[in-house]
Amino acid sequence: MSEAATEDIWDVLIVGAGPAGTSSANLLARDGHRVLVLEKDAFPRFHIGESLLPLGTATHERLGLEPDPDCFILKTGAEFVHEDSDRSATFTFSEALGAGEDMPESAWQVERAKFDTQLRDLAREAGAEVRHGVKVTDIAIDDGGVTVTADGEAFRGRYVIDATGQDRFLARRGRTVKPFKNFGKAAVFCHFEGLSDATMEEIGPGHDIRIMLIDDGWAWFIPLANRRLSVGVVTQNKTATTGLMDEYIANSPMLRRWIEGATQSEPQIIRNFSYKNEVPNGARFACIGDAGCFLDPVFSSGVAIAMESACLLVDTLSPALREGREGDPSLLDPMMAHMDEGYAMFAALIDRFYNTNFGTNFFLSTGGGDYRRGLISLLAGDVWRDHNPFKKMLAGSRRRRRSVAVQPAMG
Question: Looking at the domain that runs over 5-74+110-179+275-355, which CATH code has it been given?
């Protein structure tokens, strides 16, 4: 143990207080484990990833999360729109396989600053300690435990969870990041406040996310509570700048109509956001949520998958901690294999979206039947359902296309 380490031995040290980190902290603390969460940012803080999936509803209930109308608004599905050809198609979650039985018929759009803070507060109520403004600089793992160093102070624990999101602390340090090279390369985004009555009427009571099909990418329109709108433009052009937002607004009659009279925030940009951590777990550590893998945001899978991975991690780790088995390097292998199956399905769908005519040929088609219902199941996050003809077709196509291409590992 480092001489600087405190005498307290935590059962689990969690780096990052996003949805994956605080969901893990909540459930572990409820099981009686001593949990410390270290987060570099103060809350509330702005974040994108505002459109949730029905997959996450069971997790919300397990965490004790109550939808606050100041943060949550109903989402019944997604509408894909191609303005140039004046074509669109709507996919409602109530059409999915198993909808209303073992999969909810709706989801939520949320303001992440409030959503993440609510998850943080629930973790604290469950008994976890959460500290803000604490930047982790080192994670050391040995046979007896782990030492996490932050701002010159060392914390000792039996296990560490990397929930650092796009920072992906352990993956960067271990140079185990493999980017998906054929997905989006950059995303420019902003918020609009003060939407008009006409805009709210056009958005509709279901508050569906709009996926706008454009050359070299796509755009999102996500309605938020209190007459706000999140807009992002995703492109495969890695040299894009924030000026892409102005360019898109100039070329989208629908967006210009929706934001008339609204106030725009300053555009921001993120790049190189799609990747997989090739070593997401091992002796006394796990990387979950975006620290383990993040796929292109086109199907809004990030938060739902992150929270699902947190629940599955706890289901395995909690009994292992009670029984002293947390040091087993293969402890999480079955759980990670399950997550890989889900990531593979989303990756195959995203690959088809970007690199074939799938976007216009299928999403904008008027066809129905079980293939349509199966697609909607995937859009709902139900990627592990066995009896899904669309999933079976997609898996066969993925095998024919080999695998989604990745670049060499990088730090």
Answer: 3.50.50.60
Give the whole-angstrom CA distance, residue 303 versus residue 20.
8
Range 186-271 classified under CATH 3.30.9.100: yes
Segments making up each domain of the chain, as ranges? 5-74+110-179+275-355, 186-271
The per-residue DSSP string of 70-98 comes to TTEEEE-EEEEEEGGGTEEEEEEGGGSTT
Q: Is 267 helix (H, G, I), strand (E, B) or coil?
A: coil
Q: What is the pTM of this model?
A: 0.92
For 49, 144, 187, 384, the CA distances from 270, given in Å and listed in that order, are 12, 38, 5, 30
140-177 confidence digits (pLDDT tens): 999 999 999 999 899 999 999 999 999 999 999 999 99
β-strands 35-39, 177-179 pairing: unpaired
3-state secondary structure of 343: helix
Assigned token pair, 269: 């940009």
**pLDDT tens sequence across 288-337:** 999 999 998 899 999 999 999 999 999 999 999 999 999 999 999 999 99
Question: What tokens appear for 340 in the block?
Answer: 């890989």
The rounded Cα 282 to chain-centroid distance in angstroms is 22
